[in-house]
Amino acid sequence: MILGLGSDLSDIRRIKDSLDRFGDRFKQRVFTELERTRSDRKADAAASYAKRFAAKEACAKALGTGMRRGVFWRDMGVVNMRSGQPTMALTGGALARLEEMTPSGMTAVIHLSLTDDHPYAQAFVIIEALPI
């Protein structure tokens, strides 16, 4: 059962401008420690940050809240499974919303697809409920 679907397109140039203008203040407000560590290691850090920004926006849409109702940027973080496949790790208000929207007797699974082709980064999120 599909619980939520979200997509977002982010302009890498806009994210680079924010990184240049606000630096660590922007990074710490929006991204988790793991996301900052991974993105800062990349040759094109702005593209990495833009994909993660798009993933957060897409996830907030899939949760049906946007960036309100207690859902904050750092409540959603891009992580990788052992296989390398990306997914989202939720905490705080985002996790509370996920639990609220998941029917009893089911568990939520978040599917994430990321891509970039300069100057854009794109993310799709599908939240699926599976029987326990």
Topology diagram in text:
Elements: E1 2-11, H1 12-22, H2 24-30, H3 33-40, H4 45-63, E2 76-80, E3 86-90, H5 92-101, E4 106-117, E5 120-131
Antiparallel strand pairs: 1-5, 2-3, 4-5
Helix and strand composition category:
alpha+beta
Overall geometry: globular
Alpha-carbon Rg, integer: 14 Å
pLDDT below 50 for ≥5 consecutive residues: which ranges?
A: none
Order of H and E elements: EHHHHEEHEE
Mean pLDDT: 97
Q: How many E strands?
A: 5
How would you describe what is shown here?
This protein has helices at residues 12-22, 24-30, 33-40, 45-63, 92-101, and strands at 2-11, 76-80, 86-90, 106-117, 120-131. A three-stranded antiparallel sheet has the order 1-5-4. A two-stranded antiparallel ribbon has the order 2-3. Strand 2 and strand 3 form a beta hairpin. Helices cover 42% and strands 33% of the residues. With 132 residues, the protein is of the alpha+beta class. The chain is globular, with a radius of gyration of 14 Å. The chain contains five helices and five strands.
